[in-house]
Amino acid sequence: MTVLLNVIAPVFAVAALGYAAAKFRLLREEGVNGLVLFVFNFAIPVLLFRSLATIELPGRVPWSFLLAFYSGSATVYALGMAAGRFLFGRPLDQAAIFGMSAAFCNTVFIGIPIILTAFGPEAALPMFLIIATHSAMGVPPTLGFIQASRGAGFAASEQARAVLLAIAANPIVVGLALGMAVNLAGLAIPAPVDRAAELLGASAVPCALFAMGASLTQFRLAGEARAAVVLATLKLVVHPAIVWVVGSLALGLDGIWLAVAVVMASMPTGVNAYLFGARYGAAEGVAAGTVLLASVVSVATISAILLAFGV
Fold first, then answer.
1. Is the CB of residue 143 less than 8 Å from the CB of residue 17?
2. What whole-number distance in Å separates Cα of residue 286 and Cα of residue 282?
3. How far apart are CA 75 and CA 79, in angstroms?
4. Each residue's pLDDT tens digit, 122-136
5. What residues does 105 pair with on adjacent strands?
6. Does residue 52 register a pLDDT over 90?
């Protein structure tokens, strides 16, 4: 009950307020889009920069925790693709969006608030490592499968270059990289800059939750309920289960590293799955339904997983 009252309820209450504000037109679509841009381009990058610049790095990072996390991601991606191809009879490009919908986590808008609220600053480094590598691991396979499905319409070299440029220009990746550089160089953030960063970063978590809730009004199940149920189950149940099995039983992870890996794997489907579907005209309805359904059901599944870790 404590985890529900102290961690889950406040987090999803702010998201619910965002949803209500957008649903009842107290916040219009352009306002929602502006808030999302503020969170993604300014508040979250500054929060990550300041946190990583000032965190005490451990003597040794258990890189096996990334192996545990991405073994789960790769497995549910493959299962999602298989469901798209063989259960729902979709072509390869749409099956890739099925895979991304099953594997791509909402690491920023839900992951950061949940992890920092549940585990505190100790969880910052493992969380940052996942966030920093998440797009680089999840986006290229999807683009590759779409390219393979559509042939000459997508040049492999151009797609690879576009992915690398997009990752390098991502404000969140830039914030992480700058924060790590400052930390490794042993530099101190000047007091006025640090205070400004603290003020801006403090807005990141509530604004991210509010923006995520408001954004959910744009998604519908729209006749794709069966596919959304399958993919949401892979995302919310199978993904964290695989990470726990691989991490604890096969790789010997424990403590905060195992907890962060499993809880991050339990995050609902990230909106990027829908954005890719819409960009390439492939299973965008499935991705939208999965984002909506997984976000709602994750209130229960994340609560259960946090309880299992004694939060």
1. no
2. 9
3. 6
4. 898 899 889 878 877
5. 269
6. no
Looking at residue 273, what DSSP letter applies?
H
Question: What is the residue-averaged pLDDT of the chain?
Answer: 86
Token readout for 191 is: 């007091």
C-alpha distances in angstroms, 234 versus 38, 100, 154, 260?
31, 11, 29, 18
pLDDT tens track for 160-171: 676 667 667 778
Helices assigned H by DSSP within 24-123: 29-38, 44-54, 64-82, 92-103, 112-119
Residue 200 token pair: 């801006």
59-63, 141-145, 279-283, range with the lowest pLDDT? 59-63
Residue with tokens 């965008």: 284
List, for residues 234-279, the tens digit of each pLDDT value: 999 999 999 999 999 999 999 999 999 999 999 999 888 887 887 7
Asked if residue 1 has pLDDT above 60, the reply is: no
Select from 229, 246, 227 the least CA-distant residue to 75: 246
- Cα–Cα distance measured from residue 133 to residue 164, given in angstroms and rounded to the nearest whole number: 12
Torsion angle (degrees, nearest 10) of CA 242, 273, 129, 148: 90
Mean pLDDT of 217-232: 86
Protein fold of 2-308: Na+/H+ antiporter like fold (1.20.1530)
Identity of residue 268 = P
Owner of token pair 């808008």:
109
Instruction: Please state the separation of Cα 23 from the chain's center in Å.
Output: 24
Tell the residue number behind the tokens 């999602």, with chain if given: 80
Q: How many helices (H) and strands (E) does the chain have?
A: 17, 0
> How far, in Å, CA of 276 to CA of 104, rounded?
11
Q: Confirm if 189 and 53 have CB atoms less than 8 A apart.
A: yes
Question: In angstroms, rounded to a whole number, what is the distance separating the alpha carbons of residues 310 and 251?
Answer: 21
Question: How many residues are listed for the chain in this entry?
Answer: 311
